[in-house]
Design brief:
This protein has 224 residues and is an alpha/beta fold. It has 6 helices and 9 strands. Helix content is 31%, strand content 25%. Helix 1 runs parallel beside helix 2 and helix 5 runs parallel beside helix 6. The longest helix is centred in the middle third of the chain and has 15 residues. Keywords: Methyltransferase, Transferase.
């Protein structure tokens, strides 16, 4: 089920408005806008340390993107990376597989007047070690939304997260159950590799707190 059939999805981030073209008729899921990307961006906006009035802000360190390097995995239309860029993640690379790149680049070009620059993109297959190394890890922030839906890609996805993430970095994960098999495998394996924090649902943006969608924060387990 697609999130919406509308050909254009708009997303307000602070005082800017992003607009995304999607193609629900494509054979690639990456050409559609899925809800987790919107939920993650609006969560980050709600708790952004420069605008959040709540004291103490439990996410101030995580969402302070100043001088941090980031990457989005399986970016699709690039919603999460562009939204977080507007929230200060200025050094970010947006990645996906080759067939999805035209849709990603189209949306980057469409939003260039809002972003005021051309964001970096790279092809990334999670099983391609050369492509992973070319991204010059470690990185501070790894972003992934709606990427767990095929059981066979769970292992490569988690290995890529681990390979890219710095010892003190975080994975910002937007998650919704798409496949029971992939779901089971993902949570079995991820707990062995990461310390996992689930964001309370009441901490999501009230207008983007979909019942079936969650945000998680992953950190590398410290070596004993």
């Amino acid at each position: 089920m697609k999130f919406t059939d509308s050909p254009v999805i708009d997303l307000q981030v602070l005082n800017s408005q992003l607009s995304f073209h999607q193609d629900n008729g494509s054979m690639h899921v990456g050409t559609s806008v899925w809800p987790c990307s919107l939920v993650l961006v609006k969560f980050a906006e709600r708790w952004h340390p420069q605008t959040c009035a709540v004291t103490p802000n439990p996410y101030s360190d995580i969402l302070n993107f100043q001088n941090k390097r980031g990457i989005e995995l399986g970016a699709g239309c690039g919603v999460a990376a562009m939204g977080l860029f507007l929230l200060g993640l200025n050094n970010v690379v947006i990645t996906d597989i080759a067939p999805v790149m035209p849709a990603l680049k189209h949306n980057l070009k469409k939003n260039k007047p809002v972003l005021n620059k051309s964001l970096k993109t790279a092809q990334l297959n999670w099983s391609n070690q050369d492509q992973i190394k070319s991204l010059n890890p470690p990185l501070d922030v790894v972003v992934a939304t709606d990427v767990v839906y095929l059981e066979e890609t769970v292992g490569p996805l988690l290995s890529t997260m681990e390979a890219l993430l710095g010892e003190n970095g975080v994975v910002l994960l937007g998650y919704q159950l798409r496949s029971p098999e992939a779901h089971k495998k993902f949570w079995e394996l991820s707990g062995d590799m990461f310390d996992i924090e689930k964001v309370p649902h009441e901490h999501l943006h009230p207008e983007y707190a979909y019942e079936e969608t969650d945000v998680y924060i992953f950190r590398k387990k410290k070596k004993q």
